[in-house]
Amino acid sequence: MASTSSTLSISSSSTLVDAKAPRHSAASSPQCVTLPTLPPPPVQSQNRAGKTTAYCRKIARNVMAMATGEAPAEVATAEPPEIVKTVQEAWEKVEDKYAVSSLAVAVAVAVWGFSGMISAIDRLPLVPGVLELVGIGYTGWFAYKNLVFKPDREALTQKIKGTYKDIIGSS
């Protein structure tokens, strides 16, 4: 590298001199491929800038109203849905929050693992069809055994109610 200009040989047909590619005409070099130029970047529309300005004004108005102690008209004290209140009350009643949280994480991991296992089984040839036939067969057998005749339906209903009472407790 004794010369003052830097020359790097890429291949036998092209060289780089001072970090610039040599200029060859497309007709003289069949290996040369030109790419189309990129379109100019889109100009940001005035409509979007207006929306941004209006949004900033709205926030500034809300901040000024809150600083003076007034409640802005747009901010309403919305109450959470009923289900959120129910979940919050149930969570407050729980004594061992660590155990419940650990159980919830374990259930989430188990569901994730089982879904992966089921999707792997689903990819095997013939297995999904066989499992579907087994499910249809079991459904038919269960319906015939427990739902077709009235005494069987009543026995099933009593069994379900008994199991429900065992789980929930008598309240």
UniProtKB/TrEMBL annotation:
One of its GO terms (cellular component) is chloroplast thylakoid membrane. It is found in: Membrane. Its main location: membrane. This is Cyanobacterial aminoacyl-tRNA synthetase CAAD domain-containing protein. The keyword Cell wall biogenesis/degradation does not apply. It holds the Pfam family CAAD. InterPro entries: CAAD_dom, CURT1. Residues 1-16 have a biased composition (Low complexity). Residues 85-169 form the Cyanobacterial aminoacyl-tRNA synthetase CAAD domain. Residues 1-50 are annotated as: Disordered.
